[in-house]
Amino acid sequence: MSLLSRAECTALRGIAILGIMLHNYCHWLRLAVKENEYTFSAANNDRLLDVLAHPDWNLPVHLLSYFGHYGVPVFLFLSGFGLVMKYEKSLDSVKVGVGYHFLKLFRMMIVGYVLFIIVDFMTPGPHHYRLLDVVAQLLMFNNLLPQPDKIIWPGPFWFFGLMLQLYIVYQLLIYRRHWGFVVALVAVCWLVQLPFLDDVVTLNRLRYNCIGGMLPFGLGVLAGRYGAFQLKKWQWALSAVACGLLSVGLSLLSPHTWLWVPVAIIVAGIAFVKLTPEPVLGWLVWTGGVSAAMFVVHPALRKILIPISHRGDLYAGLLLYALAAFVVSWLLTKHCWPFAKSEKPKPNCQ
């Protein structure tokens, strides 16, 4: 028995991609409360408290803008969990090299990257591409360059470099090693960030890399190894409410507590899928099944459709963007080689 079944893993992936996709649209709107993703800003928190105290029709946009990016640590948790289930719990699996994971990521990335470049130059405000930036994106080391948020375009594609780094860390330092190695890595990466909580330039760069992602990834590894338990419905419900409130409280309290918000988000997400009724769970499983395609295609769709919201039809633009993301992701998953599933699903969570 494991903490999450394959269906629950896929549903949790569906929740994560919905958060990321909608966040990456909403936080580009001028009216939206901005997130604290790579750095901590008290001004962003003040704006969030203000819109919570005076809610209006734009409240969903504010909440998605501020909290939606936490879909990324959920993905990192599932990656750590899946690596354990694939390479440590499965008797017939063998560990494969980093090159395999690089090609797996590259096949997904290149489709979305080429599509975005075409869209970028056909729409107003194209990005200024430099040779080093393009090469760094193709080889997935642009996270390591100075000011990564200024050079990674489309912005969400920083995730590919982060995942490659975590695969390397898993192979070198975590695979079949004592749990103390995982705890030590999480502790070291947390301690490295502490001196730079007020240094936004350095902290921003650290959190674009595996130092910022080690906490949820390490939690996923530990959950994969030792999470063979199940709670009762009321316990999951209590966990969902408590961790939901804790996510908000930790986000607002201080930069130190903000670093630990991903833990509360992940536990709340697990509790949510445990409590979700079957029809809704089935839809989330379907969404999780197209999540890879949705991740790579949504930046291009956003650039095409967000002018609708900028012109004042906020929710019309958001609805059309979501509809386009679902349809295009379904078509890619059904017909495009990097995303189409050609093998029978395995019983573990990968």
Give the strand tally: 0
Report low-confidence residues grouped into runs of 5 or more: 343-348
**What class do helices, strands and sheet pairing give?**
mainly alpha
Q: Cα distance, first to last residue?
A: 15 Å
Strand fraction equals under 5%
Shape designation:
globular
Oligomeric form of this entry?
single chain
Strand and helix order: HHHHHHHHHHHHHHHHH
What's the alpha carbon Rg, rounded to whole Å? Answer: 19 Å
Major sheet details: none
H/I helix tally: 17
| Helical content (DSSP H or I, runs of 4+) | over 70%
In round numbers, the mean pLDDT is 94
Describe this protein's structure.
α1 crosses α15 and α5 packs antiparallel against α8. The chain contains 17 helices and no strands. The chain is an all-alpha fold. The longest helix has 25 residues. The two termini are 15 Å apart. 42% of the residues are buried.
Notable traits:
350 residues; 17 helices; globular
Protein topology:
Blueprint (H helix, E strand, L loop, with lengths): L5 H21 L15 H12 L5 H9 L3 H17 L10 H25 L8 H9 L8 H4 L6 H17 L4 H15 L6 H8 L2 H17 L6 H21 L1 H4 L2 H15 L2 H12 L1 H20 L3 H22 L15
Characterize this entry briefly.
The chain has 350 residues and is mainly α.
